[in-house]
């Protein structure tokens, strides 16, 4: 039990809530933790709720009844998300990021915790009201994005591998066609990694025609699982709609132009920000 002044209690309450997103916490937990009456805790939570909503930090849900409590839902407004992604798009446009085959080097960006944290918040905001059991991604560059999103949604992450690992036991493997090269590839998922009939959010770093996404969707069919949503950090805008192998997705950035000769790269905010202005 901690005896704290109200100002200090507000600070610790805020930290406690934000470190446990999408987790229902009974008021008795706080009452016992701080040795305070539930009425005092309720007043503190009202103050935090107002600040969260005014500053666009998130939402604080209160559930009444014996089984009730309070739950923090991270939410980043589209305006703030657009401001962040616009700055990230500028970083992606650096000429030295252009790789052979018109790919964009992003590993350094995906290695920065501050960037991952914000991208995770955006994806968590997009899918905050969607029933999800687990997040799925394919190795390797999608892993940090999936974990950042999983942290904000308080959900486990399932990793699809390109090759079967003996340490993961029996697995389901499928072949899929890469949308970018029209070549055949294999992906595999451990039978123990995903429960049947799970609702799955797919997160990936880059999507061209959607072949990898479609492969993961086909893999989910083997588990009788359903796709709750698809989120990609960067999509290629140079693919015709009829050539898309997967069309239902949310993108945060779009690669609209690549000129290998002049090394010009143009990246703009993705389809999530349509009709949104800063």
UniProtKB/TrEMBL annotation:
CDD domains: PRTases_typeI. Residues 108-243 form the Phosphoribosyltransferase domain. The keyword DNA-binding applies. Residues 5-74 form the Bacterial purine repressor N-terminal domain. Gene3D superfamilies: 3.40.50.2020, Winged helix-like DNA-binding domain superfamily/Winged helix DNA-binding domain. The keyword Cytoplasm does not apply. Keywords: DNA-binding, Transcription, Transcription regulation. PANTHER family: HYPOXANTHINE/GUANINE PHOSPHORIBOSYLTRANSFERASE, PUR OPERON REPRESSOR. Belongs to the purine/pyrimidine phosphoribosyltransferase family. PurR subfamily. Homodimer. NCBIfam families: purR_Bsub (TIGR01743). This is Pur operon repressor.
């Amino acid at each position: 039990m901690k005896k704290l002044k109200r100002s200090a209690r507000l600070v610790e309450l805020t930290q406690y809530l934000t470190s446990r997103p999408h987790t229902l916490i009974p008021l008795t937990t706080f009452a016992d933790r701080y040795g305070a009456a539930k009425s005092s805790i309720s007043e503190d939570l009202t103050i935090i709720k107002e600040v969260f909503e005014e500053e666009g930090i998130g939402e604080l849900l209160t559930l009444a009844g014996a089984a009730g409590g309070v739950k923090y839902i991270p939410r980043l407004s589209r305006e703030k998300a657009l401001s962040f992604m616009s700055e990230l798009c500028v970083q992606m446009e650096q000429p030295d990021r252009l790789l052979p085959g018109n790919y964009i080097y992003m590993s350094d960006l995906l290695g920065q915790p501050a960037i991952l944290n914000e991208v995770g918040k955006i994806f968590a905001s997009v899918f905050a009201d969607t029933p999800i059991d687990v997040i799925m991604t394919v190795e390797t560059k999608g892993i940090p994005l999936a974990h950042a999103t999983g942290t904000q949604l308080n959900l486990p992450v399932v990793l699809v591998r390109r090759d079967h690992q003996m340490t993961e036991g029996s697995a389901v493997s499928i072949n899929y066609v890469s949308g970018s090269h029209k070549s055949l590839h294999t992906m595999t998922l451990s039978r123990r990694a995903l429960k049947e009939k799970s609702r799955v959010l797919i997160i990936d770093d880059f999507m061209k025609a959607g072949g990898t996404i479609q492969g993961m969707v086909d893999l989910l069919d083997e588990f009788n699982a359903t796709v709750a949503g698809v989120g990609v950090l960067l999509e290629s805008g140079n693919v015709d709609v009829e050539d898309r192998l997967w069309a239902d997705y949310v993108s945060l950035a779009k690669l609209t132009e690549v000129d290998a000769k002049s090394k010009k790269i143009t990246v703009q905010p993705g389809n999530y920000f349509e009709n949104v202005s800063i």
